[in-house]
Design a protein that fits this description.
- This protein is of the alpha+beta class and about 150 residues long.
- The chain is about 25% helix and about 30% strand.
- The chain has five helices and six strands, in the order βαβαβββααβα.
- A six-stranded mixed sheet has the order 2-5-4-3-1-6.
- The longest helix is centred in the C-terminal third of the chain and has 11 residues.
- It is globular, with a radius of gyration of 15 Å.
- The mean pLDDT is about 95.
Length: about 150
């Protein structure tokens, strides 16, 4: 099993929005960064776990836990001409943008804020703290455990 972190602006799509989706799941659409796409396409597996991170807001924080429920899903927004993520070069028979489906498992007992994470030596080399622009990121098992424990305190 691998661990991940998905970033979303809560005014665009929040963890609460995911909880209200049919079966608490959705296709993680609109990713247009090749590094993030490659992580989803080449490395994610069904039943991997992911943190849901609220970004670009007053208090950025990890707020929930998701499970990867499907992989190598063609991103429907790439084919939707009304979507800001439409890609005229993406061919439905050979899609350029593959993504995953995520399913909400639970909200954290309390959010673990970016400010708090920056203060923890155990997270000093966490991708989020060193490559903050990447919208989909791997999370080391030790970082995962540290954050889960912090959320329970």
């Amino acid at each position: 099993m691998h661990y991940w972190l998905f970033k979303s602006e809560p005014d665009e799509f929040s963890f609460q929005d995911l909880l209200h989706c049919d079966e608490r799941r959705t296709v993680w659409d609109g990713v247009r960064n090749y590094q993030a796409r490659n992580l989803m396409r080449d490395h994610m597996a069904v039943d991997d776990l992911a943190f849901f991170y609220h970004s670009s807001c007053k208090q950025p924080a990890i707020v929930g836990i998701c499970r990867i429920s499907a992989t190598k899903v063609p991103d429907p927004s790439a084919f939707d001409t009304s979507s800001p993520y439409f890609d005229p070069k993406s061919d439905p028979s050979n899609p350029r943008w593959l993504t995953v489906e995520v399913c909400a498992l639970e909200a954290l007992s309390r959010p673990v804020t970016l400010k708090e994470m920056r203060q923890l030596e155990a997270l000093a080399d966490m991708t989020l703290l060193n490559n903050p622009r990447l919208s989909v990121q791997p999370v080391e098992a030790s970082h995962w455990q540290c954050i889960v424990q912090r959320a329970e305190t």
